[in-house]
User: Fold this.
Amino acid sequence: MGRSRSGPKRHVKRLAAPYAWPIPRKEGGKFAPRPYPGPHTMDTSVPLLILVRDILGYADYAREARKIITRGEIYVDGVPRKEPKYPVGIMDVVEIPRVNECYRVIMNRYHRIDVVPIDEDEARVKVCRIKNKTYVKGGNLQITLHDGKNWLVEIEDPTDPKEDVYSVGDSLVLRLPEPDSDERWEVEDHLPLEEGVYVYVMTGRHAGEVGRIVEIHVTEGPQEDVVTIENEEGDRFQTTKDRLIVIGEDEPLVTVQPEEGA
Assistant:
């Protein structure tokens, strides 16, 4: 009998790769690197190697991209990532201190993972969607963000958790550490998902669009609530709440779209 091979697959066929990956499907070989399980799903992230080679254009070949990454020259959210298959996804901040360049990872209007350049001040700011919340041992509240980060909220009185003002779908504004800093990211603000706030559409038909919430229609049952959004041109469209991330109350706090003409 032939030997059976088990274990996780190391690659994915280019033709079967997620549509969001901006890679040629019939050129550059048969396979593309498969990202390791991590903070983002395959549909909303790309392996760091693809980001360096195909999106940022710092390398022409995978071997060159691996050298750049393994030397620790690419920082994600202030942390050097030396694994070429590390998944980099929506809202992550990518920094290359050697060339003084900073980028935010986005989903563009063509439904592809992309980046927008940002300055060093904005590179310290990240907005994350609250994906889940649960009470843990001791009565404290653990909040899970869309990028895999976890934040513990201390509850003084578990029978009356006044500190729990957070809901799934809200956003937290994070302060990211400087590259090579021993500091940890911190929570600076809380942005509720409510009418009047600015949101960014992460996935779906309107992926990449920014607008202000006009109305939230609460649906019964397991279906996601339907949200009506008005963009800068005054056009309105609808999408479901799970596709949105709040990016500001009076104005967007982060850059999530390329400049006009870019």
